[in-house]
Amino acid sequence: MTTVPVYRWRLAPDGLATRRQLRAIGLRPGGQDVVAQIERPRRRRGPLVAYLYRIDRARPVRPMTARRAAALAKANAARRRCPICRRDAGYVIPTSLGMCVPCADTPRHAAA
Fold first, then answer.
1. What is the pTM of this model?
2. CA 41 to CA 9: how far, in whole Å?
3. Which terminal residue of the chain, N or C, has fewer Cβ atoms less than 10 Å from its own Cβ?
């Protein structure tokens, strides 16, 4: 296993980018390995780490097809549906509650 170079926050060389930076310019890593990493120090915890990829080896983002968009819409709709009242809550149901907020506030479901 090879070690990758570690750069301090905001001191990475040109030609390298994180996944988010690649996505912002319409690219994806495209199967390439991590080239380096940057670390942002924090006071009471370990540093934040972001992996860097070469921009010249990145590939264009795959276009969204109609079938992929339909599958994504179906998955998001399932995350909004309350398992108790079966209504679309209009927001993603919190996993900590497991149900919509009105159902969580009713006394018979609060004990469960």
1. 0.69
2. 8
3. N
One-letter amino acid of 4:
V
Render pLDDT for 8-32 as a digit per residue (tens, 0 to 9): 999 999 999 999 999 999 999 999 9
> Do 22 and 28 form a contact (C-beta atoms < 8 A)?
yes
Whole-angstrom distance, CA of residue 81 vs CA of residue 8:
44
Contact of 28 with 57, CB cutoff 8 Å: no
- In whole angstroms, what is the distance from residue 87 CA to residue 47 CA? 42
Instruction: List the structure tokens of 45.
Output: 């915890």
Is the separation of the CB atoms in 23 and 60 below 8 Å? no
b/e per residue 41-65 (b: at least 16 CB within 10 A): eeeeeeeeebebbbeeebeeeeeee
Instruction: Look over the chain and give the mean of its residue pLDDT values, rounded to a whole number.
Output: 92
Helix count and strand count (H, E) for the chain: 4, 6
Residue 1 has pLDDT above 60, yes or no: no
